[in-house]
Amino acid sequence: MHGDAITDILIVLTAALALVPLLHRFGVSPILAYLGVGIILGPSGLKAIKDPNEAAWLAELGVVFMLFAIGLELPLERLKTMRYYVFGLGSAQVGATMLIIGAAAYLLGVPPAGAVVIGGMLALSSTATVLKLLVDRGEAAARFGRIAVAILLLQDLAVVPMLALIPLLGAGTGGAVWYALGLALGKAVLALGLIVFAGRFLIRPLFKQIASTGNAELFTAASLFILLGLGWITREAGMSMSLGAFLAGMLLAGTPYRHQIEADIHPFRGLLLGLFFVTVGMTFDLAALIGDIGPILLLAAGFILLKIAVTGLVARLFKIKSDTAWRAAFLLAQGSEFGFVLTSLASGSAILDDTLTLRLNAAIVISIALTPLLALFGQMTAKRIRDRRGKGSSLVEETERLGDHVLVAGFGRVGQAVCRLLDNAGITYVALDLNVQRVIRARASGMPVYFGDAGRLDVLRAAGINRASLAVIAIDNPAQAERMASALRDSAPQVPVLARAWDSGHAARLAKAGVALAVPEDIEIGLGLGSAMLLRLGHTQEEVEASVIAFRAEQQAFGSTEPDKTSQRISKD
After folding, report:
1. Do domains 3-320+333-370 and 395-568 have the same CATH topology?
2. What is d(CA 409, CA 389) in angstroms, rounded to the nearest whole number?
3. Angle between helices 56-72 and 241-253 (to 10 degrees)
């Protein structure tokens, strides 16, 4: 690296340190702040950087680290748990949006390869912007927030075949789009299989050995070696380096070392990704932007409105309530930070010309900047739908069309966890609770939670207990739980009941009341803490699961010797 390159990087870092915190104070997202730094320093600004391409290799590393970090957030177990919404709803949203926007681009005169790329990149939403907004507002656990996160997970997965597809489209495949896509997906599946095989038998034992040394520097070096090594392998195999990094992240996501790895690579990821967005900002020509502002605004407005309509309708097809569906649709209407990656790759592959690349990048920037306003419109739309639906509605009216749903009695901490798992699995549920404020907050977030006593036969019938596939008692009051168990047995003896129990004695009494399975919370807490302890001590996930299975077998064989202390406890949920 020669002196001019070092000078340019120092200028970029100095400007970022000065401007990004300042813009952050005014609520500007880091992505937009780094883009602003690039515009200021670039050829259309102060011309402080002699050659914007000098830092291109650092920018590419930023994308690699970003894909690795996303892979770390996508363990296979999590994808399996949320498969209905991730692979069902998410795939439908990405596919429908890509098809409609791509078709619109083709009808407007864009060549087939370019239309495919435009449809794919504009189908994506900004994971960083949406997640930050949800966390800042405390809405990540709301139903619409979980729906949005599930779709974002699939979109992140969809980036991988897109990165593999674009070079193939630019290499002269012409109209053979489906052949190129199939080839890209085939390579990705093959690489995933080989890497998962190697990870199970090589990488996981390697990390276990390194972790046992207690050497933090060696652990960080191993993380970087796996990240860059797998990236190099996929690049040498004719695919992108980002694909290898993503697969490496997924491989390590299911290990006990995931959080430490994430903490180790976070500084590299943030710095290099910031440099990537700075280099994107340098490509903006302000004079061209101002002269082309009309088409840019039309493009931004067009794809935002299309994404809202498509996402909302697809969500409704998956039987998501209208207020939740449209709120999630507004939240996901912007473009993605990955759009800059894909436009850069498509431009370099001669799929998109400079004018179209500029328009797309500018429209994505505008849409990301509008995210808080779009979220507000979504909230207002959801409120109007709930208000209109709420006039004259009742528990009976809102649940009369349900069937094979799960009835959850109690919406405290345990009940909320149960409902979240049902949501992630795409299973319809109805929850009952006697805490008015808790019910109001849940319904404001679009959750099917109602005020009612699950120990009353008329309330259970109103909640459709006779059409339910399962009932769950999740309250923290032993006497009320037994009363609810008896009411459920009397109203719908054919419906299996699962229940939360305080200890083994309480579990036995619930069993006599007709509960099919009662889970003693003292044992489960002990198993949860014990599992975390074993993982911290270096045991593998498989070893921990085997220990838990052995413990449960002992419990079933010999029973619990713990005294029944239910009568000594007065509790409130």
Report:
1. no
2. 24
3. 30
Tell which residue, 255, 273, 272, has the closest CA to residue 219: 255
> How open is the CA angle 304-125-133, to the nearest 5 degrees?
100
Strands 470-473 and 406-409 come out as parallel
In our burial notation (b when 16+ CB lie closer than 10 A, e otherwise), range 284-322 reads bbeebbeebeeebeebbeebbebbbebbbebbeeeebbb
Q: How many Å apart are CA 404 and CA 402, to the nearest integer?
A: 7
**How large is the C-alpha radius of gyration of the chain?**
27
Contact by Cβ (8 Å): 553, 489: no
Give alpha helix (H) positions in 42-175.
56-72, 76-81, 83, 91-107, 112-123, 127-136, 143-168
Residue 389: DSSP 8-state: H
Please state the separation of Cα 137 from the chain's center in Å. Answer: 17
Euclidean distance between CA atoms 330 and 516, whole angstroms:
42
Domain ranges of the chain: 3-320+333-370, 395-568
Token code pair at residue 180: 């190129």
Q: How far, in Å, CA of 249 to CA of 243, rounded?
A: 10
Strand pairing partners for 497? 471
Report whether 486 contacts 510 (CB < 8 A).
no
Paired tokens of 171: 């290499």
pTM > 0.85: yes or no: no
DSSP helix/strand/coil, 109? coil
Nearest-CA neighbor of 223 among 274, 259, 270? 259
CB 381 within 8 A of CB 449: no
CB 356 within 8 A of CB 412: no
8 A C-beta contact, residue 361 and residue 343: yes
CB 339 within 8 A of CB 364: yes
In sequence order, the 6+-apart residues with CB closer than 8 A to the CB of 242 are 63, 64, 67, 159, 160, 163, 231, 341
In the CATH scheme, what is the code of domain 3-320+333-370?
Answer: 1.20.1530.20
The angle that helices 91-107 and 112-123 make with each other, rounded to 10 degrees, is 140
Whether 24 and 30 have beta carbons less than 8 Å apart is answered as yes
* Host H or E run for residue 484: helix 478-491
Q: Cα(61)–Cα(194) distance, rounded to whole angstroms?
A: 23
Series of mean pLDDT values for 10-residue runs along the chain (573 residues)? 63 77 74 80 73 62 76 68 81 94 92 91 87 72 79 82 77 57 66 68 77 79 83 71 76 76 75 75 78 91 95 91 90 88 85 89 89 90 77 58 85 88 83 86 81 86 87 89 90 90 84 86 75 79 79 59 38 39
The verdict on domain 395-568 having CATH code 3.40.50.720 is: yes
- Two tokens, residue 520: 């003693």
Both structure tokens of 108: 């407007």
CA-to-CA distance for 275 and 349, rounded, in angstroms?
22
176 residue type, one letter = A
CA–CA dist 167, 345 (Å, integer): 8
